[in-house]
Write a structure and sequence with these properties.
Strand order of the largest sheet: 2-3-1-4-5-6-7
Helix content: 55-70%
Oligomer: single chain
Distance between the termini: 93 Å
Number of helices: 15
Number of strands: 7
Order of helices and strands: HHHHHHHHHHEHHEEHEHEHEE
């Protein structure tokens, strides 16, 4: 039966989507793998419309091979987002099994229905495998959109497999299966699936771009830490709740005499010091902590589920590690930092805890710098204790080499 012009709209639409993604990759969007996947599917559906009995079963092998390869490439594109590698031998095994089953269905049984069933089953298998293996890595909204798309397509193809099992066989006349209800279902299912994937990838790419620019706006380019805006955004999010409740510690850190470092060694060297100091804070604070650069040479560390004494230990480890750091070109140069450590009280707003840590930091500066001053008490109590020198108020002071140590 002759191929209607309308039928060519299916592979044309799929190829157009694929070529669009390939074109978008030249604009720095990560859509090239998706474009290759859709182009393979489009070529497979175009080959399906070629009517020539002399080409059987080679035509069926080619068309089904391209369709299955398109699904395999889509599965690999999904996992490439997380730098996951899917076993190549499994893909090859499924591809060869599908080819063998297609040959059996066409050459031995002359059944386009069985051919369709085998290919759909292999495609569904690949989609289920990719979706279930990707599930533990779902984090962002983009991941959720793509995950839902793959699960939807896997369910649809699985249901279609049962439909084709119960469908009647069509006559062996050329084009009979293609023009039947079941053949039309194959065509338009492929078109629907390709359109769904296209929209899902477009949505995911948009979310990825938004997240990228948001991270850029919230990240200090010199140290790779959060900046002040990023810190405020994090504290306002659901993830920030663990840093603003009781049993959380706050460490305010300032590099001593940083202006002298810039004046003596130059601003490029000062940037190097800031970068290494930021890395030092990340290392000693731990993976669960939040570290941010507030501006200039001032940093903050938030420690969830931390006692005051534990936070002081972290602060001291950072201070000592920074003090013994060697710096080129002057290997004898030694830089120091001062620390103010406090606990976030139950029901206390972050700015109030920050203000108290700032007072403690200035207390460390007044004591000669290169020391840690910590307290869990209120600002008024801290001020009175500083003036009276009363240890019972909760003041913990640890001086640098040659200094004094005092603990509550």
């Amino acid at each position: 039966m002759p191929v209607a012009l309308l039928e060519w709209s299916v592979p044309a639409a799929i190829l157009l989507c694929g070529l669009g993604f390939i074109g978008a990759s030249f604009l720095q969007f990560k859509t090239l793998p998706w474009g290759g996947s859709l182009c393979c599917v489009g070529i497979g559906y175009a080959a399906m419309l070629v009517q020539n009995d002399a080409l059987s079963p080679y035509k069926q092998i080619v068309e089904d091979g391209f369709i299955l390869e398109g699904v395999i490439l889509a599965c690999r594109a999904l996992h490439k987002r997380k730098a996951n590698s899917l076993a190549l031998y499994f893909d090859v095994a499924v591809f060869l099994a599908s080819t063998a089953l297609v040959v059996i269905a066409v050459a031995c049984f002359g059944s386009a229905r069985l051919e369709t069933f085998f290919v759909q089953a292999c495609c569904a298998l690949m989609l289920w495998r990719a979706a279930l293996r990707f599930l533990p890595f779902v984090e962002s909204t983009s991941d959720k959109v793509l995950m839902a798309t793959f699960l939807f397509l896997a369910v649809v193809l699985t249901c279609l497999c049962f439909v084709y099992l119960g469908a009647p066989d069509i006559s062996h006349e050329t084009g009979a299966w293609r023009t039947s209800v079941w053949g039309s279902l194959v065509q338009y299912t492929g078109l629907l699936g390709s359109i769904v994937v296209t929209f899902a990838v477009m949505i995911a790419t948009s979310y990825d771009a938004t997240d990228k620019y948001r991270r850029h706006a919230n990240t200090d380019t010199l140290t790779g830490l959060l900046n002040r805006r990023g810190l405020e955004a994090m504290l306002a999010s659901a993830a920030g709740r663990r840093f603003t409740g009781a049993a959380s510690a706050l460490i305010l850190v300032d590099i001593d005499n940083f202006k002298r470092i810039n004046d003596r060694f130059g601003h490029p060297f000062g940037d190097l010091v800031l970068g290494k100091f930021g890395a030092l804070l990340r290392t000693h604070a731990g993976a669960r902590a939040c570290v941010a650069r507030l501006g200039g040479e001032e940093f903050v560390i938030l420690l969830p589920d931390s006692r005051l004494r534990d936070a002081v230990v972290v602060a001291e480890a950072i201070r000592l590690a920074f003090m013994v750091q060697r710096w080129a070109p002057d290997r004898e140069a030694r830089f120091t930092a001062s620390m103010g450590v406090t606990l976030v009280q139950k029901g206390e707003a972050y700015p109030a805890a920050m203000q108290r840590a700032d007072e403690l930091l200035y207390a460390a500066k007044r004591r000669g710098r290169n020391c840690t001053v910590a307290s869990a008490t209120g600002l008024a109590e801290v001020g009175e204790a500083m003036e009276a020198g009363v240890a019972e108020a909760g003041i913990v002071e640890t001086a640098g080499a040659g200094g004094r140590n005092k603990a509550a």
